[in-house]
Automatic annotation (TrEMBL):
Annotated InterPro entries: Beta-grasp_dom_sf (IPR012675), Mopterin_synth/thiamin_S_b (IPR016155), Thi_S (IPR010035), ThiS/MoaD-like (IPR003749)
Coiled-coil segments: none
Entry-linked PANTHER family: SULFUR CARRIER PROTEIN THIS
Pfam families per record: ThiS
UniProt superkingdom: Bacteria
Native organism: Actinomadura litoris
Name of this chain's protein: Sulfur carrier protein ThiS
GN (gene name): thiS
Gene3D superfamilies listed in its UniProt record: 3.10.20.30
C-alpha cells in the first residue's frame, strides 16, 4: 500500500505500524515524535497504530544546536 512518510511516497506492506515506519527513517532511540494525518501519536501507541492506504506520517527528530 502507498503512504506518505515525511513528504515522500513509500510502498509499505499492509499492517505496517507507526513504529515500523518510524524505524525506517530514524535510528534515534529517543527524541523522536510521530504525527499521523496531522495528529500526534503517543509513543506508547506506535506499535498498535497501523498505517492505512494514503496515510501521511511525519517523523520528527529533536536535535541540539547552538
Amino acid at each position: 500500500m502507498k503512504v506518505i512518510v515525511n513528504g515522500e511516497p513509500r510502498e509499505v506492506p499492509e499492517g505496517t505500524s507507526v513504529a515500523q515506519a518510524v524505524a525506517t527513517v530514524s535510528a534515534a532511540g529517543s527524541g523522536v515524535a510521530a504525527a499521523l494525518n496531522d495528529e500526534v501519536v503517543r509513543r506508547s501507541a506506535w506499535d498498535d497504530t497501523p498505517l492505512r492506504e494514503a496515510d501521511r506520517l511525519e517523523v520528527l527528530t529533536a536535535v541540539q544546536g547552538g
